[in-house]
Specification:
The chain is mainly beta. It has two domains: about 120 residues, Immunoglobulins (Immunoglobulin-like, Sandwich), CATH 2.60.40.10; about 120 residues, Immunoglobulin-like (Sandwich). Helices cover about 10% and strands about 45% of the residues. The protein contains two helices and 17 strands. It has a six-stranded mixed beta sheet, with no helix packed on it. It has a four-stranded antiparallel beta sheet with strand order 10-11-14-13, with no helix packed on it. The protein has a four-stranded antiparallel beta sheet with strand order 12-15-16-17, with no helix packed on it. Strand 13 and strand 14 form a beta hairpin. InterPro entries: CD47_Vset (IPR013270), Ig-like_dom (IPR007110), Ig-like_dom_sf (IPR036179), Ig-like_fold (IPR013783). It comes from Henosepilachna vigintioctopunctata. Pfam families: V-set_CD47 (PF08204).
Length: about 270
């Protein structure tokens, strides 16, 4: 008899526990693009459902810092506009509405007007009521393509020359590679400097002076954005130390699919 009462009590506790685990708030999808281009407008959407019986719905967005930095808060039951804080202040379109019909989801999304590299990081959406809460996190990279990519010959000692490739204004920190189409460049020197949120990077090599024209190529990569560009330059022998006689313009090798069309439009 005691065993029967004990088993019934355990069953009751399990049933109660199962009800407490039910979450009435559910984030169905967190739409945060992995990569976007500098100065692009973008919408980060937190698609959720909530039970009609739930009370005190609050939608929050956090940026980086282990969900400690609140950047956006909206209370659907309040008549006030969403509250924007920190890094997103004055950078959102607060008139943006996901739906004019769904009052609970109207201002759930972030409409960023002008994304910069400082907005790269983790975005966390928190949807909570008095009854339950759901949280999701995704990361976004705002990449900045180079504003300059150039190969040049620098002055060096007699019988030698120095070839340098420089890229300026890139984010995040890129990879760079210098090649000759005629000989192997065994030793190259890479230097990188951060200015604000952007990086300048250069690669150089000291070689024997040219006896005939030689083609050099420089490849710049941003692996996180699946972005690669290459510039090729023919340099001629002689005493015109800094003169570049022929350039073959930048070639896009690969890029994020959604960005390719826009990049080609800019370059063309």
């Amino acid at each position: 008899m005691r065993e029967t009462k004990y088993s019934n009590r355990v069953s009751l506790l399990l049933i109660i526990g199962s009800f407490t685990l039910v979450e009435s708030v559910k984030i169905n999808n967190l739409h945060v693009p992995e990569v976007i281009r500098h100065r692009a407008a973008v919408v980060l959407d937190c698609d959720f459902t909530v039970e009609e019986s739930d009370q005190d719905l609050v939608v929050k967005w956090f940026f980086n810092s282990n969900n400690q930095t609140l950047v956006y808060q909206w209370i659907p039951a309040s008549s006030s506009r969403p509250q924007v804080l920190g890094i997103l202040k004055d950078r959102l379109n607060l008139e943006y509405a996901v739906s004019a019909v769904d009052s609970n989801g109207k201002h759930r999304a972030l409409h960023i007007l002008d994304a910069g590299p400082d907005l790269s990081g983790n975005y966390t959406c928190s949807v909570s009521t008095l009854q339950s809460e759901d949280i999701r996190t995704k990361s976004m990279l705002v990449f900045v393509p180079e504003r300059l990519l150039i190969i040049r010959r620098l002055h060096s000692s007699v019988g030698l020359m120095r070839i340098q490739c420089t890229a300026e204004g890139v984010f995040p920190s890129p990879e760079i590679l210098l090649r000759s189409h005629k000989r192997e460049l065994i030793e190259t020197e890479i230097t990188s400097e951060q200015r604000g949120n952007l990086y300048d990077i250069s690669v150089s090599a000291t070689l024997k002076a040219l006896e005939e024209p030689e083609e050099f190529s420089c490849e710049l990569r941003i692996p996180q954005a699946n972005y690669t560009v290459r510039k090729e330059t023919v340099i001629y022998p002689g005493n015109k130390g800094l003169q570049i006689t022929q350039d073959i313009w930048i070639t896009i090798l690969s890029c994020v699919p959604i960005l390719c069309q826009r990049i080609f439009q800019i370059l063309c």
